[in-house]
Amino acid sequence: MCNSCSIDVLAISSACHTAINRKVYSDMLSAGSSVVIVVPTEMSFGNTIVKADAPRDGDPDVIYLKLVGSNARMNYFVGIFNVIKKYSPKYIVIDNDPASIMVLQIAIFSKIINKANIFCISYENLPLTLHSSYTRRGFSSVIPLIYKKFILALSKTLITGLFVVNDDGHQIFKSNGIKNICKIPLGFDSNYFKIDYESRIQKRKQLGVENKFVIGYFGRISYEKGVHTLLSALSRLLKYDWILLIDKFDRYHNSYAKAINDQIDNEGLSDRVIYSSPSHINIGKFMNAVDVVVMPSISTPVWVEQYGRVAPEAMACGKIVIASNTGAIPMLLNGHGILFDEGDVNDLTNTLTEIIDGGDGGLLFCSQEISDYAHKSLNTVKQAKSMLTFMESI
């Protein structure tokens, strides 16, 4: 890039700290837009500090800046204003909620300096009303909500448009006065998430599960992800020859992770569990190796499943996704998976029983139709096209 020039899109994204999440902006680049990405030099995950991934072939230009603050509604990038002045972007895409200091600061600065069109991405799916907040979380949530609504009232007059990832978010922000809203998928990289029979055979052999029914759980080990529900259901299915492939918990040194380990021991599941810790670019190989993927998420007063990247990634690999009917999951599956009542161990047990009984030794669970749907509707190409079309239409 030149020292002072004008570009189409400046993307400011903490998620792009991980290289695979930059693919949507690579697709914008491939579509003919000039793109620069700003990412944090490092991110903290619990007690672990992780440095940002280096640029990959095909990435847009990546600028690494220090991110100050751990709260997404309060943090900011050091030096971001200099970047905006240097590149004078037509569009600024901020991967953060409009009710955040980052969006407000950048929008004010940009409106003064170069009149860029400001778009942000929100994952919000909980109502922004005092009644809802008080009902869910009590009086302690009222002041933070008032602060959030105050920032939103200011930023919504400055931003050009908003991207949301679920239906609830669309309705919430529409009711709060934002007019230009576009729902997008959080796209997956089709290079890594696709049906791969050769990889399936190799990984199953490596794991020693060639002739077993393999159930996959991919994701965080936290209460709201409902791993305990899955384990309780599996404890009732010991007559079947299944294996559970699950995250190794390395980043989740908390009381819930300990409780999950204890539950595995107490319910006699230790010899049925295989642990894995793949990088994001390798998860697709493990997804190909399993027969079904289970997402047993449950709602809490402070969190409801906002998207669930695992679902479209697993679907892209042709997997049957068995998921709880909570939050955005039904929207994602869109009839291409199996839903059960969230937290209902009996329902999940019955669903798994029907799947195991209905298969040929658990070895033929792969759907081209499911994969085709995911690649058509939920990958990064679809996301990039939706975002560019929306931005150019305003």
Structural key phrases:
15 helices, Rossmann fold, 17 strands, alpha/beta, 394 residues, six-stranded parallel sheet
Question: Could you outline the blueprint of secondary structure elements for this entry?
Answer:
Elements: E1 9-12, H1 23-30, E2 35-40, E3 42-45, E4 48-51, E5 61-65, E6 67-68, E7 76-77, H2 80-87, E8 91-94, H3 101-113, E9 117-122, H4 130-137, H5 142-155, E10 161-164, H6 167-175, E11 181-183, H7 197-207, E12 213-217, H8 227-234, E13 242-247, H9 255-266, E14 273-276, H10 283-289, E15 292-295, H11 310-316, E16 320-324, H12 329-333, E17 338-340, H13 345-358, H14 368-377, H15 380-393
Helix pairs in contact: 1-15, 2-3, 3-5, 7-10, 8-13, 11-14
Q: What report would you give on this structure?
A:
The chain has two domains: 9-187 and 380-393, 3-Layer(aba) Sandwich (Rossmann fold), CATH 3.40.50; 197-376, Glycogen Phosphorylase B (Rossmann fold, 3-Layer(aba) Sandwich). 38% of the residues lie in helices and 18% in strands. It has 15 helices and 17 strands. The protein has helices at 23-30, 80-87, 101-113, 130-137, 142-155, 167-175, 197-207, 227-234, 255-266, 283-289, 310-316, 329-333, 345-358, 368-377, 380-393; strands spanning 9-12, 35-40, 42-45, 48-51, 61-65, 67-68, 76-77, 91-94, 117-122, 161-164, 181-183, 213-217, 242-247, 273-276, 292-295, 320-324, 338-340. Strands 5-2-1-8-9-10-11 form a seven-stranded parallel β-sheet, with helices on both faces. Strand 12 (213-217), helix 8 (227-234) and strand 13 (242-247) form a beta-alpha-beta unit.
